[in-house]
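for the recovery benchmark. tokens below, seq after
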């Protein structure tokens, strides 16, 4: 059997294929309705048996699920009832084996942010939750595993959720993979450029965009910023091959640079590729080096003239990290001796670099040109509310405000309490006064912060009508405190509440 070629994306025939997918309800909602929640969730664990049991009929949707998600051959007549088979054979979406046809790529329904029905193309067996998965030897026969293109996973959806979605003229998807970030960017950017070191990924991105009915992107081959020369963009997004590994065996995950140098290089070079006010947003892994504060280390990456918000979502010790990516590569399926040798190579690399752990999170830069940049690096492992893009925009707007307001200006400003902030009082049962008061957000980052009774009272009456100083004067009168002293000691607490998003400056 010959190696199947990647499909072509003839506009007319691809449009007919898209219409057939919609007519059969081969969508994210359609899958959930047919498969049911247990089978749908099992696919995300690379377990296909429940879905196979749910698709034993010969309806169009069942046929499409078996073809494109479960990668099973189906009878030609069944496929013809669901798809324009002649078109699919001509363009290479399907190949024929006797009386049966089979898919050449994984096609997975994906729901867009505004209810759009999209489809993400990836290599056979390489969609997250796909049949077998890459760690199980997935991928089409004859294709080097280092060139395989994965579908949408948790990292992809995280990046899509945190990305700022304000309309822009130009956007760059650096390391596009299956094209999910380019597809999102096409909804709010006039011009989208997508790059990748893997030519196969560029071809698959073209398929994802075409099948989803999105405008074509400017696809360019090359590493990092090399393909875009000296061009600049309003938005740069990247889910790069950030895995810190001893070597570059798999293009989709291994950056080919030492340690976390790839992510550092992306961050440091991004300023030269951003227009004023532009954002660069990427996912990254970073080393926790013995004797160094990871926050200071990453803050040193931030280029001059840029604000930055660095959020560490998780951290693993080096043994956990090595085991995770050894399983990803399928090394646990080799001989015990081979597995042990590769495991040892990972640990030796970490030891040589004095690496005690590996952090994972996201980095957002905004080019401001300010000589007083706001660089915040923090750890936040708790659940957040996606999409977080609006909260990212609001974060940097608040930094602009704080940068231009000294204590006097802060007390003259008016503030509003963020939506869905609640107050919790913590203390022993029956105690007259709480030990402390906690303000908790139920939107965005969902933060919680301790405040004193003055801070709680101040936040509670912030509705945008009175300046902060007048509110503090009223509180001082209520609690019997010197208003001058209260005005002197409170601005720092107000800054914290603004910085963390509990309070927002009120418009004029």
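predicted aa per position
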């Amino acid at each position: 059997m010959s190696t199947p070629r990647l499909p072509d994306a003839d506009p007319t025939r691809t449009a007919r294929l898209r219409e057939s997918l919609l007519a059969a309800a081969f969508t994210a909602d359609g899958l959930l309705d047919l498969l049911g929640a247990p089978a749908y969730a099992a696919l995300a664990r690379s377990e296909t048996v429940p879905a196979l049991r749910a698709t034993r009929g010969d309806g169009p949707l069942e046929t499409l699920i078996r073809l494109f998600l479960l990668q099973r051959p189906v009878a030609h007549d069944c496929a013809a009832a669901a798809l324009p088979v002649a078109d699919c054979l001509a363009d290479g979406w399907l190949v024929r084996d006797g009386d049966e046809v089979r898919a050449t790529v994984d096609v997975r329904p994906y729901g867009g942010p505004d209810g759009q029905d999209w489809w993400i193309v990836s290599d056979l067996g390489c969609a997250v939750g796909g049949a077998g998965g890459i760690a199980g030897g997935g991928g089409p026969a004859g294709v080097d595993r280092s060139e395989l293109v994965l579908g949408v996973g948790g990292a992809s959806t995280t990046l899509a959720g945190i990305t700022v979605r304000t309309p822009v003229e130009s956007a760059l998807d650096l390391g596009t993979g299956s094209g999910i970030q380019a597809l999102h960017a096409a909804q709010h950017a006039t011009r989208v450029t997508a790059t990748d070191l893997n030519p196969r990924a560029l071809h698959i991105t073209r398929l994802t965009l075409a099948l989803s009915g999105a405008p074509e992107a400017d696809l360019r081959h090359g590493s990092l910023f090399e393909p875009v020369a000296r061009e600049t963009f309003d938005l740069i997004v990247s889910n790069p091959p950030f895995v810190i590994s001893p070597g570059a065996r798999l293009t989709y995950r291994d950056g080919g640079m030492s340690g976390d140098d790839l992510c550092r290089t992306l961050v440091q070079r991004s300023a030269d590729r951003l227009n004023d006010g532009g954002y660069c947003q990427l996912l990254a892994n970073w080393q926790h080096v013995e004797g160094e504060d990871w926050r200071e280390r990453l803050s040193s990456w931030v280029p001059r003239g840029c604000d930055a918000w660095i959020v560490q979502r998780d951290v693993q010790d080096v043994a956990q990290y090595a085991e995770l990516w050894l399983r990803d590569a399928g090394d646990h399926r080799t001989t015990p001796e081979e597995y042990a040798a590769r495991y040892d190579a990972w640990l030796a690399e970490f030891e040589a670099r004095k690496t005690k752990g590996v952090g994972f999170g996201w980095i957002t830069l905004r080019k401001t040109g300010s000589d007083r940049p706001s660089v915040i690096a923090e750890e936040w492992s708790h659940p957040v509310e996606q999409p977080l893009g609006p909260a990212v925009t609001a974060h940097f707007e608040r930094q602009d405000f704080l940068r231009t307001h000294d204590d006097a200006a802060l007390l003259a400003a008016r503030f509003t309490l963020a939506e869905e902030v609640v107050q919790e009082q913590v203390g022993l049962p029956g105690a007259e006064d709480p030990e402390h008061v906690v303000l908790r957000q139920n939107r965005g980052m969902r933060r919680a912060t301790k405040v004193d009774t003055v801070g709680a009272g101040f936040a509670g009456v912030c509705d945008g009508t009175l300046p902060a100083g007048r509110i503090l004067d009223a509180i001082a009168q209520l609690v019997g405190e010197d208003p001058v002293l209260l005005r002197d000691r409170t601005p720092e607490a107000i800054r914290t509440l603004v910085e963390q998003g509990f309070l927002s400056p009120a418009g004029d």
